[in-house]
Write a structure and sequence with these properties.
alpha+beta, Uridine Diphospho-n-acetylenolpyruvylglucosamine Reductase, domain 2, Uridine Diphospho-n-acetylenolpyruvylglucosamine Reductase, domain 3, 17 helices, binds adenosine-5'-diphosphate
């Protein structure tokens, strides 16, 4: 960006005023520090001009007023760990990233009405610990993403978790918002204080406005109600492995029937083999020194690891009788298609004890071979696969962990760090996600896979998919593009694949459920009337365009796309 002396002087005055609001220790503009904090895993991102960390809602109000005075665009994030879509980086050049992590109070937990009210900085790990420590019989829904990601950021971006409460935006109720001019308002149409149903009745009264603050740029959310699951009387996790690729269409149709009928309500992720390899194995063992997997190697690895072409885990919640009735329906639908396992807490404890003992043995040379052989003979799987089962079981109970985030290291040149030291941004992993929404039927799903599979081949990257059942009628076909960020040519191919997949699927009628900062200028292009409506609302609420310009392509003053 062209920086004149006058621009620089004005920017420095603005920074001094910002420092006076939040304290100088909460403003970061030294270029090396900004670079570190802005590290992203998508192929390209704009570095912010600075980072600011407000400590209260009053700070946020002061900052938006200041931003209007200085025409300084602000890009709010809660934690900035939205890996694969854009972390702590804006959609346009010249923005200052406002990280809301210091606003980290759990304001309320109502155990009777089963909800919490949280501030932006509250993480999945923090809320989960709070419920455990206080022995509150409520379960959280987390994602398989970072445990230190925020409950709010993921919900506002309409992230999808794992359990029956996995539609995160669907389970929020009641927002408190700072508008771009500093007005503080609450959604729901009730009085600011003493509104009894603010966090219990999602629609409130009057226009339903909560949607404005999700995937939009009309306000900064400072409080959010989130519904939680009452701890069920009985719980089982279920793991399914498809025997034959040819039965894929039948599997998807069976999943629709199971979801519509209610036997499975959790947000099932049907993952292909590469996702499983990436979770359980090290990059060098998967790729064997090559840059991508040949069909032959892939088939060989499946055999070697005994991993199905597609598999999924689900959670079953309710009374024992309800869960058992659902197990019977699931067996009837899926039994003929693959291997089903139902796992309770006792079985998981057994697996943990066994794998721990085997792992201990595996630390020593010869016993390593024996341990691995035992694992495969007795249990039919490599040790690392068995070690995954307790993590799968736990996440279906709302235990956040970074275990699954490790798969972001698939094309990384460094080995995966320990479970408590996972940081894909710091470690320069390469991953971007594209998630077309597809009607939940086998015909449609097969069509989309037939569109994208050849594109992965064209760009010599590995076809990697997690089909997330967003609701009983829609599957989010989450395509991962893994690439080696230290390889400029592969990074370029990853970006080209990503854009081409986006265009091809959009043209065929499959819009994405959420997008990355580098796709935002394209995402609403096929819907110009809708975009114009969004821009008109933007002009009304934020005429100077200081809040997250370019978020989902929305601007006060529409401009030519930068991408
Ligand atoms: P995470 O909590 O996973 O780190 P982020 O904080 O990066 O997620 O949030 C994802 C996106 O959601 C941000 O880029 C931003 O556009 C939006 N967002 C997050 N928190 C807020 C908020 N409190 N108010 C408005 N928008 C937000």
């Amino acid at each position: 960006m062209l920086r004149t002396d006058a621009f620089q002087a004005r920017f420095e005055t603005a920074l001094a005023e910002i420092a006076a609001v939040v304290g100088p220790e909460h403003v970061v503009h030294a270029s090396d520090e900004v670079e570190k904090r802005a590290r992203d895993i998508i192929p390209r991102a704009y570095e912010p001009v600075a980072f600011v960390y407000p400590g209260s809602q009053a700070d946020v109000v002061a900052l938006v007023k200041l931003a209007n005075r200085f025409d300084l665009p602000l890009w709010p994030v809660s934690k900035g760990k939205n890996w694969g879509y854009g972390g702590a980086t804006p959609a346009r050049q010249g923005a200052l990233v406002m990280v809301l992590e210091r606003l980290d109070r759990i304001v309320t937990v109502d155990s009777e009405m089963a909800y919490a009210v949280v501030e932006p900085g509250v993480t999945f790990r923090q809320l989960h610990r709070h419920l455990e420590d206080q022995r509150i019989p409520l379960w959280l829904d987390c994602t398989d993403g970072p445990a230190d990601g925020s409950v709010m950021g993921n919900s506002l971006e309409r992230g999808v978790g794992e359990t029956d409460y996995g539609d995160h935006f669907g389970n929020i109720c009641g927002l408190e918002v700072v508008l771009p001019d500093g007005l503080v308002a609450r959604t729901g149409g009730g009085p600011f204080e003493g509104y009894k149903s603010w966090n219990t009745y999602k629609w409130g009264v009057g226009p339903y406005l909560e949607g404005l603050f999700s995937q939009g740029n009309y306000g900064i959310v400072t409080k959010m109600g989130v519904w939680l699951m009452p701890k069920p009387e009985y719980f089982l996790s279920c793991v399914f492995e498809l025997h034959r690729e040819e039965d894929f269409t039948a599997l998807i149709d069976a999943m629709r029937r199971l979801q519509l009928g209610g036997a499975i309500k959790s947000k099932v992720h049907i993952v292909n083999d590469v996702v499983t390899f990436a979770v359980v194995a090290e990059s060098k063992d998967i790729l064997g020194g090559e840059k991508s997997l040949s069909d032959a190697r892939r088939a060989d690895l499946r055999k070697q690891f005994n991993i199905a072409p597609w598999s999924f885990a689900a959670g079953l919640y309710g009374t024992r009788a309800q869960v058992q009735a659902n197990v019977a329906v699931i067996r009837r639908e899926l039994g003929p298609l693959g291997k089903l396992q139902f796992i309770d807490d006792r079985k998981v404890d057994l697996i943990k004890t066994m794998t721990k003992a085997l792992r201990k043995g595996a630390a020593f040379g010869p016993t390593r071979v024996v341990a691995e052989r035992f694992s495969r003979r007795a249990l039919g799987k490599p040790l690392a696969f068995l070690e995954m089962i307790p993590h799968v079981h736990a996440i279906e109970k709302g235990y956040p962990s970074d275990y699954f985030v490790k798969h972001a290291y698939y094309k990384s040149r460094r080995p995966k760090p320990a479970d408590d030291d996972i940081d894909p941004g710091r470690d320069q992993c390469g991953l971007i996600w594209l998630g077309p929404m597809v009607p939940l039927n086998g015909r449609e799903m097969t069509r989309v896979l037939d569109l994208v599979r050849p594109l992965y081949k064209k760009y010599s990257l590995d076809f990697t998919a997690a089909l997330i059942i967003g609701n009983p009628r829609t599957v989010i076909a989450l395509m991962s593009v893994f690439y080696d960020k230290q390889d400029a040519d592969e990074t370029r191919r990853a970006e080209e694949l990503y854009f081409e997949m986006g265009e091809v699927t959009q043209r065929a009628g499959y819009q994405q459920y959420r997008t990355s900062t580098i796709y935002m200028d394209r995402i609403l292009a096929p819907a110009p009337e809708f975009l114009e409506l969004c821009n008109r609302i933007k002009r009304a609420l934020d005429p100077r365009g200081i809040l997250a310009p370019g978020k989902y392509g929305i601007d006060a003053t529409p401009r030519a796309p930068e991408n």
